[in-house]
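Example record used in the benchmark description.
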Amino acid sequence: MRKALYLLAAINDRDFEWLLKIGRRTPVSAGEALITEGHRIEALYVVLQGTFAIFTQATGDQEIAHISTGEVLGEISFVDARPPSATVKAVEDSMVWVIPRTMLVHKLAQDPIFASHFYQAIATFLSERLRSTVARLGQPDVDPDNPDADDDLNPQLLDKLDLAKMRLEWLCSHSISNVAP
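Model output (structure tokens):
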């Protein structure tokens, strides 16, 4: 759950309202690919409900990870503007918050404070991902992705953790009228 918490903790109330305004709650059916390796994506996704499996051609299309509520998808392709390096499929009926790429790019170009906070959050959770990968390689029995392990969260997040959790809970439980077909 850390990725969305980093993002939601980094932004201010005005920017959170902007995300609510431009984003869309979108259902994803079990078995449906949300992201396909090698195919450009036009959004950043926050998982609101459900579970997604990650597959890569490099591993013979074997599942390499599970992603669930509170995670962000598509961030690497957003940052480097290259097609995704993995396929992401819904394991069960799920719900995502879709943030359109074009609108996010425009906001980042027009609002340097938002851009600073957004990229700081992205850098922080990519750093966390690298640390957890290194830990997993060195100690395969360790579960570095435990979403309930608040004690090992980045200190920058701890001060705003409650606010970030409330924002995520709000996204997950509200905005039903903002559901894309």
